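Tokens as discussed.
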């Protein structure tokens, strides 16, 4: 599925940042399905930011210390708008028979 429809992932500013002063080292972020984080002596580290699923913020929503943040989703929406991503994704979904 071409969710980025030709936009290089590196051009989409979407990945977590950690405020280590607020981190309580609960480890919840380590449940990331894309394995974005590594655990260090200081706590979590964003080791693979470009592996983060664009639009996902589950780790921030579940973080006990509320130390994880993301850029504004409006940046991503603007990139999608500029590159016509919604129309391209819809076209692909129709081709795959997932929508009519």
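Sequence:
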């Amino acid at each position: 599925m071409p969710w980025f429809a030709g936009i290089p992932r590196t051009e989409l500013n979407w990945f977590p940042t950690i405020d280590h002063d607020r981190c309580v080292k609960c480890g919840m972020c380590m449940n990331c399905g894309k394995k974005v984080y590594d655990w260090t002596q200081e706590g979590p580290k964003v080791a693979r930011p470009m592996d983060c699923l664009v639009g996902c913020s589950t780790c921030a929503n579940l973080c006990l210390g509320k130390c994880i943040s993301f850029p504004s989703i409006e940046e991503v929406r603007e990139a999608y708008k500029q590159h016509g991503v919604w129309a391209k994704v819809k076209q692909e979904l129709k081709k795959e028979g997932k929508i009519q």
